[in-house]
Hints:
The protein is of the alpha/beta class.
Amino acid sequence: xARMKTINQDNLREHNLSIxxxxxxGHGSPLSRAQLAxxxxxxxxxxxxxxxxxxxxxxxxxxxxxxxxxxxxxxxxTPLAFVPHRWAGIGLQINTDGYGYLxxxxxxxxxxxxxxxxxxxxTDPATIFAELDRMVRPAEAFLKDEGYQLCGAGLALPGLxxxxxxxxxARNLGWTDLDLSQFAVVRRLHAHAYNEANVxxxxxxxxxxxVHDPDSDQLGPSDSFIFISTDVGIGGALxxxxxxxxxxxxxxxxxxxxxxxxxxxxxxxxRTGCLETLAGRRALVEAAGIxxxxxxxxxxxxxxxxxxxxxxxxxxxxxxxxxxxxxTSVLASVVNVVDIDTIVLGGLWSxxxxxxxxxxxxxxxxxxxxxxxVKVRVLTSAVPEHSALVGAAQVGLRQFIDHPRQFLPQAERxxx
Length: 416
Ligand SMILES: [Zn+2]
């Protein structure tokens, strides 16, 4: 009985430490102990104990005192903020156009990142993971030298991921049925694998695992939105009330394979006329007559597409408008099904947006069932570059936010 009681108290303390950190992250700017107590519903005495533990463990630091009336902790009140240069998460990504890593500080700054651009179709997984391992090792040594604690790692992949470490397939890489734990870098960093759209969506949630600036956010920490990742493949993710809805198997949001035209082009999934065959990066480049080369997935061709379209090339425009119509139709259906009115565009279509985002928004608005009372918003990604890498680093950091006890030896000692 005594042991069970101890375990429960430890779990409760860990839960409360996590709540304190989540509250501070969600708020976006420093909060005093009294404000934290008020926002969490915890007692002031409990808040004093919890914040002392977090300060001792160098998670939080006391900022310059401000005058806060009725703080109950004596005046002036002392705001608490996360300690920078101490806690980091690492994101790894293998995508259709290259691979790399990104390290994120809990304060929200990018510590270090590296990306190799390369057409990845039919590459050898073992070779690519070995390359990624070689890239990341000096970064890990750098973190150690700088006194960082690496909290966790996420791995973003352009395919269906089952559980933490099984890639069922990534057709645009030509990879199938891979146990990712066979790769040294995945094992060493305890990296959890995710579909790239899911982590790119997480990167849009303010305060998910890093400090954010509420004044510049386009979304709130508890907002709902549909995230669309547009690359060679088109992926999607649903975030409801600030939480990713990955679905029963983690496969939710695969909108790239919604059929737009039953008589359309053959898709990598085996069907015909999927959204990807009209609005995917390779499909657009090929329809615009730029190349049908086996390396048509390379990013340079997409940049060529954008520049041709901007210069008034009619074939490029026709390709883009056919893609836009397909995207509009699918997104209107998605809005109808999930009843979420905000869409965040990432990847190629966010680069194309400009005059297209209002057109897309107006088109979806016209096609949805609840048009009279639903106001659709189409936004572009708040993280313009490598949002999946940023999200993967965030899920690494989130391991610390959700399970702080293993990182806080001080807390353990105090609990005994
Ligand atoms: Zn398909």
